[in-house]
Each structure stands twice: as C-alpha cells, then as structure tokens.
C-alpha cells in the first residue's frame, strides 16, 4: 500500500512523531515522508492512506495544515489519519488544543474523506512560547510552572513515540 506521512513542524516535535510513524509504516508498506509545504492537497490522491501532522497553534492545527485540510478533494479514495503535538498538559488538552481534532474531523466530514482517527502527544514548547508562559501567559503558580517545564521538555518522549507507532499499527490492522 502507498502511504504518505505529511507534516508541518517548526521546532521538530511533530517531525519526530512523523518520522516514527513513517519508520513503522515503512516496515511493510511503501511510505513517503514529506513536509506539508512541499505538497498540495491534490498530491494526497496518489496514496491509499495519508497521515497528516501538525503542531497545535492557538488551540488549532497550524495554518499550513489547515490549508491542506481546506483543499482536500471531495470523496477521495485515500483514508486520512491525523496527528498533532501540543504544549498543553493532557489534563488541559481540550481547553488549549481542543480544535485540532475537531478540524481534522470537520474537514473529513465536509469532504467525505474516510477519517481513521487522531493521535496527539505533548511537545516541548519553543523558547519564545516558554518565555511568554513564564511571564504570565499560563494560569499556573511558580511551583506548577516549574513542574510543568521539567516534564514537558521530555516530550515527545520515547513512550509518546511508541504510542504513535501503536496508532499507526492499529490503523494498518483495521485496513488489512
Ligand atoms: C505560535 C504558537 C502557538 C501555539 N499555540 C499552542 C496552543 O494553543 N496550545 C498548545 O497546546 N500548544 C501551543 N503551542 C505549542 C506547540 O503546539 C508545541 O510546542 C508543539 O509541539 C510544537 O510542534 P513543532 O515542534 O512540530 O513545531 C504553540 C506554539 C506556537 C509556536
């Protein structure tokens, strides 16, 4: 099966997840790893399965991914799986990254694309975002912020990447 793993990533977190999914898919399938900015939505039709990945920006998928989702062809033959990384903790994901999954679901529903689900995990925030969170952009005490940054810098962790592999394997099983 021909599979595409397309991703947008500014600081490497989403790219790590994309590479891991691609590595897993490549074991048994013809998988191509590509940056979203190098493709158009029309290119997706060359594949049976597409994994599309994004960082969370302002609670939603990043603009280049939003653009591809907006341009999806109608009723294509490919299936689409989403993945994204976010700085929000798993407890606050719905509040701070809630639109990501919805954007994948909504775009697929509108264009009648078979959507196979979404994987997400935390990704270490950039120095600039970390600075603004420390300066009051996050509703956390100093102690909570310290714990948060100590933990978030480890993500995507080996466990996150293992779960991304499991996500890819589950989708392949469902399709076989
Ligand atoms: C401009 C900008 C906006 C962001 N907005 C959010 C947000 O609303 N919610 C969130 O959980 N993370 C947010 N983040 C954090 C990123 O989603 C997170 O660090 C992600 O792992 C970055 O992925 P990348 O390294 O692939 O670019 C934002 C990051 C940037 C740069």
Structure characterization notes:
With 176 residues, the chain is α/β, with parallel strands linked by helices. The chain has 7 helices and 6 strands; from the N terminus they run βαβββαβααβααα. The protein is globular. The mean pLDDT is 95.
Provide the CATH topology: Rossmann fold
β-strand number: 6
SSE order in H/E notation?
EHEEEHEHHEHHH
Rg, alpha carbons = 16 Å
> In percent, how much strand structure appears in the residues?
15-25%
Helix count from the secondary structure assignment = 7
Please specify the SSE layout and strand pairing.
Layout: E1 2-7, H1 13-26, E2 30-35, E3 49-57, E4 60-61, H2 63-70, E5 79-86, H3 93-96, H4 98-111, E6 114-122, H5 127-137, H6 142-152, H7 158-175
Parallel strand pairs: 1-2, 1-3, 3-5, 5-6
Antiparallel strand pairs: 3-4
Helix pairs in contact: 1-7
The structure holds flavin mononucleotide.
Task: Provide tags for this entry.
alpha/beta, six-stranded mixed β-sheet, 6 strands, 7 helices, 176 residues
Summarize the structure.
The protein has helices at residues 13-26, 63-70, 93-96, 98-111, 127-137, 142-152, 158-175; strands spanning 2-7, 30-35, 49-57, 60-61, 79-86, 114-122. By secondary structure, the chain is an alpha/beta fold.
